[in-house]
Input
Amino acid sequence: MIIVNVKEGESLDRALKRFKKKFEKTGVLRELRSRQAYEKKSVTRRTQLKKAIYKQSLNQDIV
Output
C-alpha cells in the first residue's frame, strides 16, 4: 500500500504528483501489463538481450 502524507498547506496537485511518482517506482503497472499475456522465458530473454545491445550501442556512440 502506498502512503502519501499531505503536508499542511500543500496543494492536492503536488501530493497527487508525489503519489504518481511513488506508484511508478513500485512497478505495479508494468507487472500488470506483462501478466496480461504469457511470454515464454526464451522470448523474454531475447528482448532483454536486444535492449542491452541497444543501450550498449548508445553508450559507445557517446564515448
